[in-house]
User: Fold this.
Amino acid sequence: MNNSDMPRQLPDVFKELQQSRFEQELNTKLNINKAKMVKTSEKRKKVKEKISQKKEAAYRNMWNEHSTTEVLNFSVKKAAIVTMGICAIVLTVVSKNYIFAGNNEEEPIIETSYVDFEANDNAINLTQIVSENASMVEAKDYVKEEREVDFETVYIEDTSLQKDEKVVTQEGSKGKEEVTAIKTYHNGEFIEENIIERTVILEPIKSVVHTGTSEFLSTYKVHLGDILYVTSEVALREKASDSAKEIVKIPQYYDVKLVELAGDWCKVSFNGHDGYIKNTAVTSSSYTPGILEQNRKQKIFASAGESMSVNKASGLTLEDFKKALSNNPKDVNKIFENNAEAFFNAEQKYNVNGLFIAAIGINESAWGTSNIASTKKNLFGYGAYDRDPYNSSYTFETYEDGIDLVTKVMAKYYLNPAGTKIYGDEMASGKYYNGPTIAAVNMRYASDTDWAKKVYTYMELLYNKLK
Assistant:
């Protein structure tokens, strides 16, 4: 078929374009080589013949490869895209399929080698390439929006906290900012973001966390403001120095309030005095569990004395009362031992020292062996007059009744000034009140001037049993 008799199709154009390009490149190379091969020997003529043979073979392969190319039906726009793509491919293939090399033992010979064009079993599917590239969409989105801004957390070492303890002293809060950005999407999938501008709306607030470093506080499991206990009598000093002025002596097992730490010293508060003691002189209830009991008893013993006030509770426990009133050889009938709880209950009810009441009973009844105590269950000789003690004394149904009444009488008439609340809504009359001490009670309660000393002697005996 004559190509001049009908319009040329796109594949024919491609063929012609490819052939023209091929011939142009080939002629250029041949002209260069021809000039250099004029003076060559017979060997060079054989090279020329070989080149001619390869040229013919190349033509044959080229036409055979494209003789079966299908006619593509593209729109004008798509045809232009495909034309440009194929031109690029052809130029790449042609330019990369020449290898120039030459060698001659006598003189340099440039030998041009042409790679045979072979049929491509995996022919390029232009329709598929165009379709795939047409479906790949990249989009950019301009956004302007408010966003949260995370707050920063600041950690501060603190010697006033236990080691590794953390305390938040300032809560953090997020801020806000207005962000202008361009977001890039590929086939609907987010790829990247380019921030153009940031405008702060609300500044974030930092979170402040104090981290403890004190080994001392960690060991004793205490904080500033907690209670510590001295392990032996110690001097409270004005400064953190052994040579500093002494303020006061702190008795063994007494409690102090921890104010601050100062190296090997700690500042404490004791009975209204602030000063310094060595860290090694104190302990805590968690570190030394038995120290609380020692502290309690030490305070009780320290407050005991002939001039002690007995118009308040002793601070002793029921177990203390049982221990103090048990196993006394002179309590042959075990009256006091069996009524230890009655003395404790009377103390709690009327706020009067229960061992003081017990000591009165021991003194008046000779440890419960008197006739009045045995027959009338009256340990105190209450109501008795010197002219007829037995008949004038009260009779109680139980020892507990007598203990309760005498304790109430002491609170209402002898130990408290008028108007003092003693029990429920009942007030003290203060009729025989001369003071809250044993000696003051002696003045109006007993005619025996040595009564106070005798009573305290028994109190001291009972206290010593608790040590």
About this structure: The CA atoms of residues 137 and 187 lie 5 Å apart.
